[in-house]
Amino acid sequence: MIPDGARVFVVDDDASFVRSTLRLLASWGIEAEGFTSASEFLAHGPGDGPACALVDLRMPGVNGFDLQEALSRGRRSLPIVFMSGHTDAQPGVDAMLRGAIDFLTKPVGEQRLLAAVERALAADARERAERGRRDEAQARLRRLPERQRVICELVTSGMGDEEIAAALGASAITVRALRNGAMRALGAATVVELLRIVETATAA
Amino acid sequence: MIQDNPFRIECANLQSGVSMLRRSLGAPGGSLVTAVVLLAGLASAAEPARSRRVLAVYQSEAARPVNVAFNAGLRAALPSAGDVDLLAEYLDAERFSQPIYEDRFRDWLRTKYGEIRPDAIVAVGDAAIRFLADPATTPWPDVPVVFGLTVEAAFDVADLPPNFTGVTEHLAIRETIDLALHLLPATRRLVLVGGASWVDTPLSDLLRREGAGFASRLQVTELFGLPMPALQERLRSLPGDTVVLVASFYRDGSGRVWFGPELLRALASAAPGPIFSMHAHLLGAGVIGGVVSDYEESGRRVGRMVSRILAGETVASVRPEPNAAHRIALDGRELDRWQIPDARVPAGADVRFREPSLWSRHRWSVAIFAAVLAVQTALIAGLLVQRRGRRHAEANARENLAVVAHLNRVGAVGELAGSLAHELNSPLGAVLNNAQAARRMIARVPGYSKEVRESLDDIVQDARRAGEVIRRMRAVLRREDLRPVPVDVAAVIRDAVRLVEADARDRDVVLAVDVEPELPPVSGDDVQLAQVVLNLVMNGMDALARTPREHRRIAIRAAARHGQVEVIVVDSGSGIAVAERERVFEPFYSSKPAGLGLGLAISRSIVEAHGGSIAVDDGPGGGAMFRVLLPATEERWPAQEASA
């Protein structure tokens, strides 16, 4: 359930809490790394591998929300599980609204913590797969010859073969041949699959 | 160089003429006299002076309070009326935003002022600045423009055309929040309010950015772009430890346009706490105040810049400047309304609208009235003392003082509980993590004794229990965390009895539980309700201390009664005297030397928070009978609630 090579970053100003959490994660066989301030973690960076972060909400200086915002401006999105010693409901609601995976109040039972970490890593895996598919589709689309790429774009804009032919001043047979060539190159068996690939490549 | 300047001949303003000449001739201060003489000669040779035209282009309509304030300052700082003709046009950009509109507005300005080009233009507000700075829309690209009423970050001054200079505003948002926290140290929530129009959003973004700096100390809630009724609804739902901060609210989410005073009336009627603002001109309209920018002062600064340019200075030499004149301004009536003691008002703060006190207005009548009142009170007090006996009264006073002291201590505990929870939960979390980790580690090593494992199990369990205690303590002390869920009263009684069983055995008290099957659920918090049952049973056990061992018995019964659930706890003791029955629920009333006297008081406040009632009566055997009535709820408890 824990992806290979996954890494959990633990960020909390309470060094003893960080140590104990690292031990607990290690006892489950999860690789983890601890930081006692948000800026320390930001300086280190989230890396490229599968990962998530356990972050204390209230820290002096850069707090959990600030950290989340700083990370969201970075290259990769990192799923975050917030923790807090406070039992107030409002910060938890805020955290969830800002897209946190979970909000845990200390002390956290191990099942709850493990479940949250698993969910965060699963979200990260989904995100990575999504990104992989996007990169792949973009690369394949980039490799297409110019004319085939134009056909793909026109197909996704909803135009039929006849309309494309009229627009390009080519025959419908040529258009079909180019489209079939593009579909072969992209590994799309149907027009619907072609649409999906182009859409994936252009998704934000 | 003098000849190049057409204004020289027309100049009738001695002061500006002097300054111009001094600069033009490079004359140091010592040759002032020469300059004046020179000027006098020039002026006498001049044609009749033509008054110069200054056109102020306002972003928004004339009646906006901010424009009124700015205009007053501008007019005051310009040379006297005969010399300068101050004209005004209103872009009204918030209402008219179609692209073609700005072109038509330009064409119309050109038509209207065709013959009489303005000598200087004042651009008031971002939209007016954009309109005049854009070569595509400005009617007069080379007339000097002095801008005002723009927040410092809105434009990069270097990007504006070279004929632009002006005054920027710094909105003291952070300073205003600091002021709010200083005036109201108990503040827990900061609500940022902003309108929905494009004029409002940049200032709302500014609020959001500055407010984020307080996220570690305050719960920051953003209410931007809502329709007024929804905004009021949200404000009303907030607790009293809230302050509201509003920067810009031109239009609400439904498109309605709001003016300062009516906006503040609408907000103040719904806001749970005082409304702070960074704008001086809103003081008196319902805001408590803030670290304010004074837009009349902005107008004056802009006016002084315009005067310098009219006097012949080049735009480049009139450097843009910030309106840094901030001050703390507060509305005295609002200070009174929110009960902020004067001691907290920072020194030097400008407190307005302070009603002269009763004392200062009617000093003598008040003094005489007070004296009469004092005599009268003394007479009544004397009679009372006589009647009830001096001793008794003194004892009462002492008791009251003690109650107050106790209550204060409990209040302090409530304050402490918040920070205590954080301070304790983190190490507790570390204890729990370590114990859980250790338990897993030794599970892999064969031959570890069962005792080590059990001891770790206990550590895990106790750490969790301690965490739960802290959570409940917070809930009880704050009293606002009651999250009502359907509660099974039978289970509540079972839990409570399990907790006191051992104690009861030690004290030879027999506990008899009789719960009617199929009780309807009540709505509330199970731990708090268990606390009530626990308190009542413990109280009963204490009451049985002097009862012979063989007669010590407490019966706990629960039954459904006309849409309510009735819980009765009755002991076999000697009962409570009728006169004392109401007092037993008062805080710190205790018949036991060691008792704190809080158990029944806490029970009553819990029961009342659940919409129920509690009373004490004589039981069938003469002991005390406590009766708790809780409203039943239709709701069944959901399945996951039972398994959680």
**How many individual β-strands of chain B?**
20
- CATH superfamily annotation of the largest domain in chain B: Response regulator
**Could you tell me the strand content of chain A as a percent range?**
5-15%
Strand order of the largest sheet of chain B: 2-1-3-4-5-11
Please state the average pLDDT score of chain A.
Answer: 87
Overall structural class of chain A, as computed from helix and strand content, comes to: alpha/beta
Q: Over all CA atoms, what is the radius of gyration of chain A?
A: 23 Å
Percent of residues in helices of chain A? 55-70%
Structural class of chain B: alpha/beta
The CATH class of the largest domain in chain B is: Alpha Beta
Keywords:
heterodimer; A: 204 residues; alpha/beta; Rossmann fold; Arc Repressor Mutant, subunit A; B: Rossmann fold; six-stranded parallel sheet; five-stranded mixed sheet; 20 helices
Could you please describe the fold and organization of this structure?
The complex is a heterodimer of chains A (204) and B (644). Chain A contains 9 helices and 5 strands; from the N terminus they run βαβαβαβαβααααα. Chain A is of the alpha/beta class. Chain A has 2 domains: 7-134, Rossmann fold (3-Layer(aba) Sandwich); 144-202, Winged helix-like DNA-binding domain superfamily/Winged helix DNA-binding domain (Arc Repressor Mutant, subunit A). Chain A has a 5-stranded parallel sheet, sandwiched between helices. In chain A, helix 6 crosses helix 8 (172-186). The radius of gyration of chain A is 23 Å and the shape is elongated. Chain A starts with 6 loop residues before the first strand and ends with a helix. The mean pLDDT of chain A is 87. Chain B has 644 residues and is α/β, with parallel strands linked by helices. Chain B folds into 5 domains: 7-154, 3-Layer(aba) Sandwich (Rossmann fold), CATH 3.40.50; 173-352, 3-Layer(aba) Sandwich (Rossmann fold), CATH 3.40.50.2300; 359-383; 391-478, Signal transduction histidine kinase, dimerisation/phosphotransfer (DHp) domain (Helix Hairpins), CATH 1.10.287.130; 485-643, Histidine kinase-like ATPase, C-terminal domain (Heat Shock Protein 90). Chain B is built from 20 helices and 20 strands. Chain B has helices at residues 7-10, 14-25, 32-45, 65-77, 99-112, 126-133, 173-183, 200-212, 228-236, 260-268, 295-310, 332-337, 358-361, 363-388, 390-443, 450-478, 489-506, 526-543, 599-609, 639-643, and strands at residues 52-58, 84-90, 120-124, 145-151, 164-169, 189-194, 219-224, 242-246, 275-277, 289-293, 321-323, 326-331, 350-352, 485-487, 510-515, 522-524, 553-561, 564-571, 613-618, 624-631. A 6-stranded parallel sheet of chain B has the order 2-1-3-4-5-11, sandwiched between helices. In chain B, strands 15-17-18-20-19 form a 5-stranded mixed sheet. In chain B, strands 7-6-8-9 form a 4-stranded parallel sheet, with helices on both faces. Residues 1-48, 400-409 and 637-644 of chain B have low confidence and may be disordered. Classes of the chains: A alpha/beta (204), B alpha/beta (644).
